[in-house]
């Protein structure tokens, strides 16, 4: 196999955590026994970590080598090429993407059942998923606008990829006794929503995410293993975490199907419509200002966080709040310069109004979800996930509102005492 640094896909597991010793563990279950045997046959054996179910999340564990998974355990595109699918993939033009190759292999192996060499891994993969693309349409409608839009894009991408691959699937008919459409159905197409990755890592993907953990993950060319290390030691009887990346909750839900409580990277996105909601409708330069923001990448990823409005959001507001006679100074605004006392005050006031608007919206959505949970009993688990997201966004907005109120008071006090405004900004 050629030398490369693997990009690992994390499948969110039904039981997705590790225990550092035996008490109250899940290792006795047949699927985990088979998985450990299967891994041992591929030269991986671990005596430190044991699959377990935790009622909640403990403190983030950091430390030593968490796992060292041999190359023989990784499911890569090279694995697929060496399999019975290889000849079909290599002769197909254009060549199927790594994502398509991996997903085709997973579907084929799942269909093989007991005959599959990958059965121990396949049988612990989730039977259902909680990513928004898998949620019911009426639940998706309750998501924040930005996340709803991304979910619809993802759903369209999955459908397009699956539909455009039908001819390739049909070419595999000689491998199966059953009609190919019954094997590669629309339900299996949901697997194609996973990130376009280079490898899947059995056992490693049982590890849960914590945003508070820092890990180093890479393929070791010397040991030919995919290794994960943390920064400090782990105590016994505590759950071991890794970090999937510094992701906000909307991205975690979109890509992994869960929300992380008290996520330090959590934020609330401000849409373009909301951005201009509290600005003067009589501003003749508004369209030009919006165009400038768009051209310079300041119309997207405008957020409120635990520390208040982001620098990008405040900068966008300062430009939008420029007085007509100061409009020519827009480049200085994007560079972070203070233009005028009036501009600083107005942009801060608008930020407060937007924050309060989003607070009201979040509270209203929480009430709506709560009522729907009473009416749609079959959707309770999906609705609870959406409810958690809105509740976390509400907490972020409340923290932002407090920061803005403090900034406003400080700003006014400084203006009166010094006769000039301080620089107002939150990074």
From TrEMBL:
Record-linked Pfam families: Rubis-subs-bind
Protein keywords: Methyltransferase, S-adenosyl-L-methionine, Transferase
GO molecular function: protein-lysine N-methyltransferase activity
Signal peptide limits: none
Domain Rubisco LSMT substrate-binding per the UniProt entry, residue ranges: 281-397
InterPro entries in the record: Rubisco_LSMT_subst-bd, Rubisco_LSMT_subst-bd_sf, SET_dom_sf, SET_MeTrfase, SETD3_SETD6_MTase, SETD4_SET
Domain of life: Eukaryota
Biological processes annotated in GO: methylation
Protein known as: SET domain containing 4
């Amino acid at each position: 196999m050629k030398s490369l640094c693997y990009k690992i896909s994390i499948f969110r597991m039904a039981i997705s955590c590790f225990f550092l010793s035996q008490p109250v563990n899940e290792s006795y279950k047949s699927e985990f026994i088979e998985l450990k045997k299967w891994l041992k046959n591929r030269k991986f054996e671990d005596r430190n970590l044991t699959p377990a179910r935790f009622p909640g999340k403990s403190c983030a564990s950091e430390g030593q080598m968490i796992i060292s998974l041999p190359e023989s355990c990784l499911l890569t595109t090279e694995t697929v090429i060496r399999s019975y699918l290889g000849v079909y993939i290599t002769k197909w033009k254009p060549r199927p993407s790594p994502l398509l190759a991996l997903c085709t292999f997973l579907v084929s192996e799942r269909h093989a059942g007991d005959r599959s060499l990958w059965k121990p891994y396949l049988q612990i993969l989730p039977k259902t998923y909680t990513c928004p693309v898998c949620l019911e349409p009426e639940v998706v409608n309750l998501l924040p606008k930005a996340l709803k839009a991304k979910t619809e894009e993802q759903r369209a991408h999955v459908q397009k990829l699956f539909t455009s691959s039908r001819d390739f699937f049909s070419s595999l008919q000689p491998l199966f006794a059953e009609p190919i459409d019954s094997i590669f159905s629309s339900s299996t197409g949901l697997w194609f929503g996973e990130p376009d990755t280079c490898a899947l890592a059995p056992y490693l993907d049982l590890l849960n995410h914590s945003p508070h953990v820092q890990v180093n993950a890479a393929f070791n060319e010397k040991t030919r293993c995919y290794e994960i290390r943390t920064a400090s030691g782990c105590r016994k009887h505590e759950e071991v975490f890794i970090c999937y990346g510094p992701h906000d909750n909307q991205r975690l839900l979109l890509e992994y199907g869960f929300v992380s409580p008290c996520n330090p990277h959590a934020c609330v996105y401000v849409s373009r419509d909301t951005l201009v909601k509290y600005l003067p409708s009589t501003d003749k330069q508004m369209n030009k200002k919006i165009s400038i923001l768009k051209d310079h990448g300041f119309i997207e990823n405008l957020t409120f966080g635990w520390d208040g409005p982001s620098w990008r959001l405040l900068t966008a507001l300062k430009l939008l709040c420029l007085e007509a006679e100061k409009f020519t100074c827009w480049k200085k605004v994007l560079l972070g310069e203070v233009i005028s006392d009036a501009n600083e005050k107005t942009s801060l006031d608008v930020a407060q109004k937007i924050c309060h608007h989003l607070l009201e919206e979040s509270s209203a959505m929480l009430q709506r979800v709560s009522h729907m949970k009473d009416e749609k009993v079959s959707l309770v688990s999906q609705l609870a996930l959406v409810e958690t997201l809105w509740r976390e966004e509400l907490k972020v907005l409340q923290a932002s509102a407090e920061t803005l109120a403090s900034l406003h008071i400080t700003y006014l006090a400084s203006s009166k005492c010094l006769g000039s405004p301080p620089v107002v900004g939150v990074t």
